[in-house]
Amino acid sequence: MLRFRTDLPLDRDQTARFLPWIIGFMVYLAIIAATIALLVHHATQRWQRDLSGQLTIELPVLENEDADSRRQRVDAAVEEIADTNGIIGTRLLDEAEMRRLLQPWLGDQVDQLGIPLPDLVAVSLAPDISPNLSELAERLQAVSPGAVIEDHVAFNAGAIGFLRTIEVVAISLLVLVLAATAGVVAFTARAGLSIHRRIVEVVHLVGAHDSYVARQFQAQAFRYGFYGAFIGSLLATATLLMAAIFATRGAAPMTAVVRTFEPWMIWPLVLIPLAAILIAMVTVRIAVLTALRRMAY
Amino acid sequence: MVLFDGVAVRYGAGPEVLRGISFTLAPGSFHFLVGPSGAGKSSLLKLIYLGLRPAAGRVELFGRNVSVLKRSDYPAMRRRIGVVFQDFRLIDHLSAIDNVALPLRIAGVRESDIRRHVPELLAWVGLKHHLDALPATLSGGQQQRVAIARAVISRPSLLLADEPTGNVDDGIGVRLMYLFEELNKMGTTVVIATHNEGLVGRFTHRQLRIANGTVRLVDPAAAMPLAQSQAATQPQIDMRHGTAAQPEPAAQGDAGARQMQAGREYAADERDPGEPHRTWEEPA
Ligand SMILES: Nc1ncnc2c1ncn2[C@@H]1O[C@H](COP(=O)(O)OP(=O)(O)O)[C@@H](O)[C@H]1O
Ligand SMILES: [Mg+2]
Question: By residue range, what is the domain housing residue B144?
Fold first, then answer.
């Protein structure tokens, strides 16, 4: 399959023999890295979009407080909150909603715990003005002592920073792997050129342009790139499927990220093999042409 | 067609192998390049086929100074030159037919034309039954003929042959010479490098003699019929004088160029493989 008559017996070179496997491995790594980068980037963005523009304010129940004074205290606090520059909406969460929120932390026995649940106020923020939260906290202490402002963005900053780091590492890996592929391919082409130096010389002397020689290397790069892309994308498909299966069953943070998967995220599986073939061919061409130009005649 | 003016050759930092070389090759001429082994014959041919840069002096090829050529100009020049290398330089993994077809494939000749002309030429040099043979399975003489076929397949306007009779006995050597003369009659400028004085002596072609790193022209045809006294006092015409005595007329150069153009169009009907006295007998 895919064999051409060539003047240079490149396929017999020991140095080139492992090229399809090396390219295959590189393509595999690149696809995995790119998919991770995409997935993490997407998850982070969605997370940030969901959480930004919101914060929650917790108003603890005071000791020896009857229902009436509690309602008055909460109403006063909500008014105080709504009266803040940069806050555009407030909503007191009802009991069912609270239970749903607390259930992951406290389990099904929320009711049986017998601890008084605080009142929670969901706050919507203006997109352009950020409220002065410390000033708000001071005012709230006067109305409802012990009030806590939970800034989701600040709370999640650590998690998002971690995801960003993963994304940067994945992208760096992708770039490195593609650069290494180009390097290996260029090195192999140079080796082939010096192995077949005498033939290259003859081909030149009977009137070949440098590009004629380069084309033979490109044909080889295309074939080996094709095999490598095939091997790599096959392995990557298997790995991603397995990862998807394990992740949906696995621990919470992984699950959360993998659940953000969308069909368009298989693009690396299509684009990276094509990119690898293209990179191999272009690199070989450049490597061969520059090497030939350095020859005396 | 070829002009050397004060050309010197050296390899790396070594001594000058050739120096002060000046001569011209007129279009359609036939020259022997004669000298003992190691005299610098191959080096001189290398200068012509753009395989070596002169250390000094000026080399002109087809009217162009080679030192001002760009790398991308070389192929067009080289396609007008056929070279029979001393060591053949056949490509080991290609069959005889693919070796001979190489210059055509490189020049982008249609595959159907290649399949028509290459076997014809190989048959003409007596290798009809060895079209698919790899060089390693051929005798030295057979390889030489494959090399010659490759050199002439694209109808070069200049043919350079380096010791083309070196690997064959004298009988075959003379027959190869007839082949080159035939090409010369069709307009190809020919240069044959050889150390075989016996072979050179059988022909009256002009001789470029290399000795002590420099070259001088000997013209047996001019020396003999003219006054013996002149031949005695000046038996060998110095190259520079030879050039002056036989200026290369511009018109002739133009005609040669046109001829080259025609040759490069690769007209099949020009070649007559049927000439019986030129056809090689397959050695038993
Ligand atoms: N590639 C080379 N590197 C160094 N010296 C060379 C090379 N080729 C030829 N020479 C030297 O140049 C001289 C002429 O060699 P060459 O041109 O091959 O002579 P000839 O073809 O007449 O036998 C010799 O002394 C030889 O050793
Ligand atoms: Mg020699």
Answer: 2-270
Q: Which residues of A touch B (CB under 8 A)?
A: 5, 7, 9, 12, 198-199, 201-210, 212, 293, 296-297
- For chain A, first and last CA: distance in Å? 36
Report yes or no on whether pTM surpasses 0.80.
no
Rounded to an integer, what distance in angstroms lies between the CA atom of residue B36 and that of residue B85?
17
Ligand 1 near B163 CB (within 6 A): no
Residue with tokens 């006092």: B233
Give the Cα-Cα-Cα angle B95, B100, B102 (nearest 5 degrees): 95
The domain that holds B194 is classified in CATH as: 3.40.50.300
Q: Which residue CA neighbors atom 7 of ligand 1 most closely?
A: B11
Distance CA B26, CA B246 (A): 9
B150 lies within 8 A of chain A by CB:
yes
Q: How far is B74 from chain A (nearest CA, A)?
A: 7
> Does residue B283 lie in a domain region?
no
List pLDDT tens digits, range B176-207. 888 899 999 999 999 999 998 988 998 999 99
Cα A278 → chain centroid: 24
- Which ligand 1 atom sits nearest the alpha carbon of residue B44? 17
Domain assignment present for B281:
no
Residue B255 lies in a domain: yes
Is residue B40 within 6 Å of ligand 1 at its C-beta?
yes
Q: For position A46, what pLDDT does the model report?
A: 78
Per-residue pLDDT of A37-73, as tens digits, reads 998 898 888 777 766 777 889 899 888 888 899 999 9
Q: Do B103 and A198 touch (CB under 8 A)?
A: no
H/E run at residue B122: helix B111-124
What own/partner pairs with CB < 8 Å and gap ≥ 24 does A191-199 have?
A: A191/A13, A191/A15, A191/A16, A192/A8, A192/A10, A192/A13, A192/A15, A192/A16, A192/A217, A192/A220, A193/A217, A193/A288, A193/A291, A193/A292, A195/A13, A195/A15, A196/A8, A196/A9, A196/A10, A198/B89, A199/A7, A199/A8, A199/B91
The residue ranking higher by pLDDT, A257 or A97, is A97
Cα–Cα distance list, B140 to A153, B123, B173 (Å):
84, 17, 13
Q: Which among A42, A83, A6, A55 is positioned nearest to A154, based on CA atoms? A: A55
Which among A9, A203, A209 has the least Cβ separation from residue B72?
A: A209
Dump pLDDT digits (tens) for A246-268: 776 765 556 666 777 788 888 89
- Partner A contacted by B107 (CB < 8 A): yes
Q: Are A232 and A273 in contact (CB under 8 A)?
A: yes
Tell me, what's the pLDDT at A254? 61
- The continuous run of DSSP H or E covering A125 comes out as strand A119-125
- Mark the ranges of chain B whose per-residue pLDDT is less than 50: 226-284
Of the pLDDT bands very low, low, confident and very high (cuts 50, 70, 90), residue A112 is low
Q: How many domains does chain B contain in total? A: 1
What is the nearest CA distance from A290 to chain B, expressed in angstroms?
12
